[in-house]
Amino acid sequence: MRYLLLEMMLLCAFTANAGMDPQQLKQTMAQRLGVQVFLVDETPLPGLFLLGTAQGLIYSDARGDYVLQGSMLDLGHGMKNLTMLDQQRQRRLALAQIGEQRMQLKAPHERHRITLFTDLTCRSCRTSLDELPILQAQGVSVQLLPALSTFADLAGAQATWCAPGQLGELSLSDRLPEAGCNEILAHHIGLSQWLGIKALPSWVLPNGDLVRGYQRPEQLLKLLDHIDAPANPSSFAS
Questions:
Q1: Does pTM surpass 0.85?
Q2: 3-state secondary structure string, the chain?
Q3: Which of 81, 124, 221, 227 gets the most CB atoms within 10 Å of its CB?
């Protein structure tokens, strides 16, 4: 989509091979596949590159003539799933580039932090929003980020998310400002596409895992309590 304003977020460390142009590969693959390509990164396999697209991760040669889709496993280290680890890393990286933090529901005695991609129109999204105070009371701070439901459009999202007093029932730290709201909203929705957020609501955990669909507060708490990771630096980056 034309409104994906994500070039500023492509900070993935990359060392180009001789004769290999990451920007050219992005353009070539975008034209051939018809999808937005957000990043190009190296893999442990020489000559094979990781591409982050709006349809998920794929692999390509340096010219974009051959494409692989699936999981890359490191058999030398216990069949480590490198694709899954890259997906987690992308989510942490992308959320760290949000910039000024808004729409945070902060827990007074914080134990965990989580990011919620949501819409204001779908039924399960509204249920999740109504239950956020339960998470807050259990020590979970939540960062809200807008995303588009199926068949929704940006204009419709702007009419709801940018309305004054939106989400007034939640004690959020801040809301989307009236000035520049459309640009901020487009940026966040573009971010959700980069991360492959399709089912709403969707939750990004501190380790970068993506949990799709409605989750009861007790389910989320169980997941968070079993994550062996520090408080999420990506959701509330300075």
A1: no
A2: CCCCCCHHHCCCCCCCCCCCCHHHHHHHHHHHHCCCEEEEEECCCCCCEEEEECCEEEEECCCCCCEECCCCEEHHHCCEEHHHHHHHHHHHHHHHCCCCCCCEECCCCCCEEEEEEECCCCHHHHHHHHHHHHHHHCCEEEEEEECCCCCCCHHHHHHHHCCCCCCCCCCCCCCCCCCCHHHHHHHHHHHHHHCCCCCCCEEECCCCCEEECCCCHHHHHHHHHCCCCCCCCCCCCC
A3: 221
